[in-house]
Amino acid sequence: MVNPERPNVFDRVVVGTDGSERAEEAVGRAVQLASLTGASLDLVYVIDTNRPFSDAEVEPKAEAALEKGEAIGSAMGVSISTKVVAGEPAEALLEEAARHAADLICVGPDAGLLRGTVHVGKVATHVLRHAPCSVMVGREAGPSFPQSVLCGVDGSDGSVQTAGLAARIAVAAGAELRLHHVTPIFAGDEREWTLDDDEPDPIEIEPAAQVARTAGVRPIRGRALGRPEYAILETAERERVDLVVVGSRGLSGLARVLLGSVSEYVASHAQCSVLVGRPGADRHER
Fold first, then answer.
1. CATH number belonging to domain 148-277
2. Distance between CA 124 and CA 110 in Å, rounded?
């Protein structure tokens, strides 16, 4: 049951499933967030029209996948609305999210070696790049997910909004929150350190830290020199973080090719769940 004093985080969550083990992990993370925040949860099975199929084959698979999702929700006291749609999976999920005015889409990583490194495939990548709302790539986690939230910050307005989202999730879950700023360097020595409690906020962290404290959580503040995507992943693994929250600057086309995307790289290579926040899409930002 959601504590009425906890902050609003999400109103509506859409999660896609194909019945696979990885999709079920995404459903599990979506159910856990819905349980913490009181969000409505829509579970969508997409019949991929790009592949040949017969009704006799696909209907039992869709029913079984949705029943598994409902069972996960029932175990945590979360009611789930289910739906079967047909189309290209990524676009169908985006359309369902738009139809329901969702503020979070959850997907599983759909590529990688079995029981090895789990990267994101074409469906998750398309959703990450084109969703109008926040997106979470859900991976395996414990029953108290999230226990430790890591948020990358850089002092920008979008970064402050992302930190606010991370802080509200941490408060709702009773989790620790780490704010991490990485000064980009692409050559030379890389290093990392945690600020003492009595040290003042660096200018790059200060606005995010203030937002976190206002939300009700005292953040652990960290700094690093190096490539941001590598530093975030290393910190997440070392500190056993189970949710990384990063912002998206909306890079596309040539800019994405030239500059890359820290958020997309982290979402693809992290061992834990990653939530990519969309600046301006958060209805609960004050």
1. 3.40.50.620
2. 7
Tell the residue number behind the tokens 């190096």, with chain if given.
Answer: 226
From residue 167, give the alpha-carbon distance in Å to each of 83, 202, 230, 273.
32, 18, 22, 16
Is residue 62 scored above 70 in pLDDT?
A: yes
pLDDT for res 5 = 58
Is the predicted pLDDT of residue 2 greater than 50, yes or no?
A: no
User: Are residues 110 and 22 in contact, defined by beta-carbon separation less than 8 angstroms?
Assistant: yes
Sheet of 40-48: strand order equals: 80-87, 40-48, 12-17, 104-107, 134-137, 273-277, 243-247, 148-152, 176-184, 220-226, 191-194
Average pLDDT of the chain is 87
Q: Which of 274, 10, 2 is nearest to 168 (CA)?
A: 10
Q: Picking from 122-126, 246-250, 254-258, which range would have the lowest pLDDT averaged per residue?
A: 254-258
HSE value, Cβ hemisphere, 13 Å, CA-based, for 276 = 26
Q: Are 281 and 250 in contact (CB under 8 A)?
A: no
CATH class of 12-137: alpha beta
2-to-38, 77, 104, 150 alpha-carbon distances in Å: 6, 11, 18, 22
Where, residue-wise, is CATH 3.40.50.620 in the chain?
Answer: 12-137, 148-277
Q: Kindly report the backbone phi and psi dihedral angles of residue 87, in degrees, each rounded to the nearest multiple of 5, phi listed first.
A: 150, -165
Helices 21-37, 55-75: axis angle to 10 degrees equals 40
